[in-house]
Amino acid sequence: MSVISSVTVNVPATTANLGPGFDCIGAALTLCNQFKFTRLDEGGLTIHVTGAEAERVQTDESNLLYQAFLKLYQYIDQTPPPVKIEIVLGVPLARGLGSSATAIVGGLVAANQLAGEPLSQVQVMEIAIAMEGHPDNVVPAFIGGCRLAATSDVGWEICDVPWHESIVPVVAIPNFELSTSEARRVLPTEFSRADAIFNTAHLGLLLRGLETGKGEWLRAALQDKLHQPYRKALIPGYDAVNTAAVAAGAYGMVISGAGPTLLALADVAHSSDVELAMASAWKTSGIDAVVRSLALDTQGATIL
Ligand SMILES: Nc1ncnc2c1ncn2[C@@H]1O[C@H](COP(=O)(O)OP(=O)(O)OP(=O)(O)O)[C@@H](O)[C@H]1O
Ligand SMILES: N[C@@H](CCO)C(=O)O
To answer: Where is ATP bound in this sequence (predicted)?
Structure first.
């Protein structure tokens, strides 16, 4: 068997939850990180990072990408080779766009390639879910598209969620971070029956709204009682940006992942107006944000 000396993996950003689908649904977006691993003859670990906020990424063994790389070698019970890692950052850190999922998926996929592909895609995905703690970012980061994940008696059932071509995801990324662990700490551990029923109904409606692009369904579906009511307070300007997005024609607005990025869904005819409205509302609240209309990424992690 020939030994691969280097591997480059692109992994897309993801938006998780989509309102009522807390911890179970997510979509890959057309924004990505690139990770290159080069096997070294000797030495330990070298990490180079380029791109916006590069200085915020750890360059020692605590780096999450490297931790994922080690995890795969641990799983197959082999000694990891010394490596040089080159990271080109396209996904902003700790903003609710799945940066940690890109690192976990990138490290696992690269290690599996360098090790000669000992594990199947399903095995690698299950390790990724276990590392992240929930499936909604790592699954679409790995296989692309919009995906719903549910446990079964034997593991995970992953289902593709059709996304109508008219629906545009507009992301408003503010200039402050919110770590997922902090945004999970504010959530209650128990919920009422009424809230559980509310989210079950709205997630069902969301799935049909995404598939059909039907405005009435999407407008009603993008509501949630499990996480957003508790997290809103961590995101200054949330209500103003929401009101502005809807007034400009968005079907609705939700927190992307754990936040602070806000995600509006709009049809193609309104997405530019929604972009402008969200940026302006945040500016009025004293926050600079990068606002962009993206598209669904259908490739997932790609080995170049
Ligand atoms: N390219 C990367 N290389 C190494 N570590 C990374 C990389 N990107 C993110 N991380 C790690 O993940 C952390 C951010 O994870 P966190 O879960 O808080 O946010 P997120 O994944 O961007 O948001 P969300 O989970 O809400 O979508 C960073 O602080 C860093 O430790
Ligand atoms: N479902 C996760 C996504 C962020 O990792 C959350 O909202 O906490």
So the answer is: 92-102
201: CA distance to ligand 1 center in Å? 31
Q: Is 17 in the pocket of ligand 2 (CB under 6 A)?
A: yes
Cis peptide before 12 (omega within 30 of 0): no
- For the domain made up of 167-293, the CATH class stated in words is alpha beta
CA distance 92 to 174: 10
Name the one residue in this structure whose structure tokens are 């080109």.
88
Q: Which CATH number, 3.40.640.10, 3.90.215.10, 1.20.1260.10, 3.30.230.10, labels domain 6-161+297-303? A: 3.30.230.10
As given in the structure block, the two tokens for residue 279 are: 């940026």
| Residue 99 marked ligand-binding | yes
Please state the domain extents for the chain: 6-161+297-303, 167-293
Check: complex ipTM more than 0.90: yes
Confidence of residue 43 (pLDDT cuts 50, 70, 90): confident
Q: Are 114 and 7 in contact (CB under 8 A)?
A: yes
Per cent of the chain over pLDDT 90 is: 97
3-state secondary structure of 202: helix
- Strands 45-51 and 83-89, sheet pairing: parallel
Ligand closest in space to the Cα of 102:
1
* CA-wise closest residue to 221 among 258, 250, 180: 250
pLDDT for 1 equals 59
